[in-house]
Amino acid sequence: xxxxxxxxxxxxxxxxxxxxxxxxxxxxxxxxxxxxxxxxxxxxxxxxxxxxxxxxxxxxxxxxxxxxxxxxxxxxxxxxxxxxxxxxxxxxxxxxxxxxxxx
Length: 103
Description:
single chain; mainly alpha; two-stranded antiparallel ribbon; 6% strand
């Protein structure tokens, strides 16, 4: 069964970590007055990051996983340098959101 959330994230039964994470991230960015476009982009990159690491919660991951994700973008996806730096900033910003959330 699929449900659509406020942030536009589609969640499915059995994938309980990611939708909660994305919903809380959406709310944290909304409270900080980020634009809708920025919020959507950060949630999309977070979704890709979590999926690359087998749906593990970002709080359980560290620098090694962040480096692996950025390396994956540069090598496998061949993203441009500007996209790489944008994603690098999004990782750091998202990390500050994950680490300040309760639970």
